[in-house]
Write a structure and sequence with these properties.
Helix content is 44%, strand content 27%. The chain has a three-stranded antiparallel sheet, with helices on both faces. It has a two-stranded antiparallel ribbon with strand order 1-2. The chain is an alpha+beta fold.
Length: 154
């Protein structure tokens, strides 16, 4: 399996007349860099490295997060994380259920995974989203309300 990610950077150059300070010429150059991942795990770490919040997560948290992204409901980012679901994720990753639970604790502390109660969670739409972009705004409002409600309870 080979997954490609193309990164683009734009370099802007200005040629300035040193005597007058006038800009004589201005041009931009685009540079592309191809990053190739040879496995899903490698892709996961490349993907996470591009997001400042995800880049600080541990390997178990990143791998669990990627499993959760695949299971969220479209247009809500909600998912049920009850014992059978956690066991299914653990089996897919060839790890124990406690590995997933520990990673969930990390994701909750970082406000990436937010509890709505009784096994219902929402993945913070600031970091990933599946569905219509108009619905993302609605979900982001819900996340802010949940975070505010949770802080008031404490």
């Amino acid at each position: 399996m080979e997954i490609k990610n193309i990164k683009q950077s734009i370099e802007k150059t200005k040629v300035i007349d040193t005597a007058t300070g006038e800009i004589i010429e201005e041009y931009s150059e685009s540079q592309y860099k191809e990053i190739v991942a040879h496995s899903k795990d490698e892709f996961a770490f490349i993907y996470a490295s591009l997001n400042p919040v995800l880049s600080k997560l541990s390997k178990p948290a990143i791998l669990t997060y990627l499993q959760l992204i695949q299971r969220v409901s479209i247009n809500t980012n909600e998912l049920m994380l009850v014992k059978p679901t956690i066991e299914t994720i653990a089996k897919a990753m060839n790890v124990g259920s406690q590995y997933i639970r520990n990673a969930m604790v990390v994701l909750k502390k970082k406000d990436i995974l937010i509890s709505k109660g009784s096994g219902l969670y929402v993945l913070n739409p600031l970091h990933s989203w599946r569905g219509n972009t108009d619905e993302r705004v609605t979900s982001m409002r819900l996340v802010l309300e949940l975070k505010l409600t949770n802080k008031l309870k404490k």
